[in-house]
Write a structure and sequence with these properties.
- The chain is an alpha+beta fold.
- It has two domains: 83 residues, Alpha-Beta Plaits; 151 residues, CinA-like (Maf protein).
- Helices cover 43% and strands 26% of the residues.
- It is built from ten helices and eleven strands.
- The strands form three sheets. It has a five-stranded mixed sheet with strand order 8-7-9-10-11, sandwiched between helices. The chain has a four-stranded antiparallel sheet with strand order 4-5-3-6. It has a two-stranded antiparallel ribbon with strand order 1-2.
- The N and C termini lie far apart (55 Å).
- The relative contact order is 0.11.
Length: 276
Amino acid sequence: MYFDRGNKVFMSMPGVPHEMKKMMTDHVLPRLNSKYTLPVIHHKIVRTIGLGESFLAEKISDWEKSLPEHIKLAYLPSLGEVKLRLTGFGDSLEKLQNETSAWIEKLNSIIGQNIYGFGYEPIEVVIGNTLREKKLTLAIAESCTGGYLSHLITSVPGSSDYFLGAMIPYDYQIKMRQLGVKPETLEKYGAVSEPTIIEMANIVRAKFNTDIGVATSGIAGPGGATPDKPVGTIWIAYSDKHHTVTKKLQLSKDRMINIRTASMAVLNLIRQSLPK
């Protein structure tokens, strides 16, 4: 419903989100633009990973303070990443776009290693596009993440272009018999260890004959901890023909947070470790 009273407009729209958005885009905004001279609002989202919100805020504090009054910054944190949304207000879209781009260039000089993309594409899409462009294939051996990492990878349409498959060797015996981790490695170091995760990543790459192998192994919780390996201790690894990279994570006591955060950390490890 649309009511026009003098210099005011009253509208009533559906509460169903996709209906409201469609109506807003196709009808409401064009009608308002034809009636009023509206200020220009320009949004730009910078997607970062590898730094928590407070650490990120501290690192870019001086840059944030130097932003002009008409450009505002919002922190949009989620598990494993923080989105930075720059919103500019003015009377020229082109001017705002150029100005915002210049500020993002300055931001890139500070935290470039943590910026993985822009806009609305999550890291699994960015990684998938990169693998496709480089014509690289990927296989996964995931233990503590229980298939969640594979779920993220395969949630992207066309992921079969680069993702060949995965194993979930949760049990010691499966790690040894089906995957092929050496019994002496597990006996000496345990499943949650750097030597084990290295073997997992290397073996799954060889088994699936892929360019890249990644692996996860850890204690997601709430049980299974030892004095030297508390809940949230997770090892992740990346392997290709050039090198093998590992990382130890010390996460929370919450099982699902650990599973999701570890999966995001593996995607970031792939991003950081891919051949240039």
